[in-house]
Design brief:
415 residues, alpha/beta, 2 domains, eight-stranded mixed β-sheet, 15 helices, 16 strands
């Protein structure tokens, strides 16, 4: 098998970042009226989710410290639906991966899965909420606002979704996802959140937006009365900073790492322009003929939701899949297609050879892109067939190459 030469390219990202996210968190909370109204000895539930968020442990610690500075008692509630195998231990373990545990945060982690039915929306949707959070006097939802991987609306992934699906634990997440099959995501989330807010402890949202480099770009605190307006505004900013692949047509995309901390679907469907789930929508660009995924990110917990979007995987990745955790998540999400396991190969060379046999391009002419994850798109490797196109793009520069890709004795890329 002949493999083309590669070039290293860099996309020029211009978005700025927050120099000290923890200090910015403290400043934002200190200026928020719903935080200033916290009284001594109140119990404050800090909701933290399972998505990969830059500087998450520092931000959460700043939230905890701010609450404690008001004389109140903070505790952390994992607000992540069915993730972590839908068990208290699994959800606490996910937080621990992010550096959030009872020692580092100096507060209790309340990870129980029980929920209470709050009532029904005018449309008849039943609404559920975490018992642990309901026992608090106040709630702070710490969440990243970003485009959802499967639908487009004024509000997508953010505090409203966390309050409904995240704090709904497995029972709520399962119920809402089944509603999504008949009603739009946005209609369900908006209706459920509107029903929740008057019937749960007062909510403060701490919203985070990240730039193209996966860095904290915006930190904003606001009360529940401003939930939808602020989230809509910040989603516009998040979409403007979403990293993208710069090419419209790719024959083979090689993804080094896949996992829930990268995206809810392991690879961001907004980046790869692909989904195997019929009721979800994705951008029409790029058009990628084949995707080969090499391994999990280290904090994946074996959750392979979204691996069905790949065409080929390595046996390394296959051996690390936790079927129980994966099936719990895909069944709750009403998307079993996401758990379909692609053909697995022992070596990178074998996987690439299989890909070359299934595309309409000779290996030396193939348009190949290799990335670390769909979150990390500032630098990437491209094959010679994309060199001229990369050089012509205003936002790209070639920083190295040409060079031959190196393989070890087993046929895998030399890192």
């Amino acid at each position: 098998m002949h493999i083309p030469a590669f070039y290293r390219i860099r996309q020029r990202f211009s978005a700025s970042s927050v120099t000290d996210p923890a200090a910015e968190t403290s400043r934002e909370l200190g200026a928020c009226s719903s935080i200033l109204s916290i009284r001594p000895n109140e119990r404050v539930a800090v909701g933290v989710g399972s998505r990969g968020i830059a500087n998450l442990s520092e931000v959460v610690r700043a939230v905890v410290d701010t609450v404690r500075s008001r004389g109140a008692e903070p505790f952390i509630v994992p607000a992540m639906g069915s993730h972590g195998g839908a068990t208290p231990e699994g959800q606490a373990a996910i937080l621990s991966h992010y550096g959030i545990d009872e020692q580092t945060m100096n507060c209790r982690i309340a990870a129980a899965m029980e929920v209470t039915s709050i009532g029904h929306t005018p449309e008849g949707f039943e609404v559920f909420f975490s018992n642990c959070a309901l026992a608090a006097d106040r709630i702070i939802a710490v969440n990243r606002i970003k485009p959802h991987t499967g639908f487009e609306a004024p509000v997508e992934s953010g505090p409203a979704k966390m309050l409904t699906i995240g704090f709904g634990k497995r029972k709520g997440a399962d119920y809402y996802h089944r509603l999504f099959l008949k009603h739009s995501h946005y209609a369900v989330i908006r209706a459920a959140a509107a029903c929740l807010l008057p019937n749960i402890p007062p909510v403060t949202c701490l919203a985070l937006v990240e730039n193209e480099r996966d860095e904290t770009a915006i930190v904003k605190a606001f009360g529940a009365d401003r939930l939808f307006g602020e989230e809509e505004r910040l989603l516009v900013a998040a979409k403007s900073m979403l990293p993208k692949l710069p090419f419209r047509k790719i024959d083979l995309l090689i993804v080094d790492e896949f996992g829930k901390s990268v995206s809810g679907t392991g690879m961001d469907q907004n980046v790869i322009g692909r989904t195997v789930v019929g009721f979800q929508c994705v951008p029409d660009s790029p058009r990628i003929a084949r995707i080969y995924v090499r391994d999990f990110v280290n904090d994946s917990d074996g959750n392979a939701l979204g691996i069905g979007n790949a065409d080929f995987i390595s046996t390394r990745l296959e051996s690390r899949i936790d079927k129980r955790i994966t099936l719990t998540n895909v069944i709750t999400s009403c998307a079993p297609e996401f758990a379909r396991i692609p053909p697995a190969f022992n070596t990178d060379k074998d996987a690439m050879n299989a890909a070359f046999h299934t595309i309409f391009a000779e290996p030396l002419d193939a348009k190949i892109v290799r990335i670390r994850t769909t979150l990390h798109l500032e630098e990437m490797l491209v094959s010679a067939a994309l060199n001229d196109e990369a050089a012509s793009l205003p936002g790209c520069e070639i920083t190295d190459g040409p060079f031959e890709p190196e393989f070890d004795a087993h046929g895998n890329f030399v890192e």
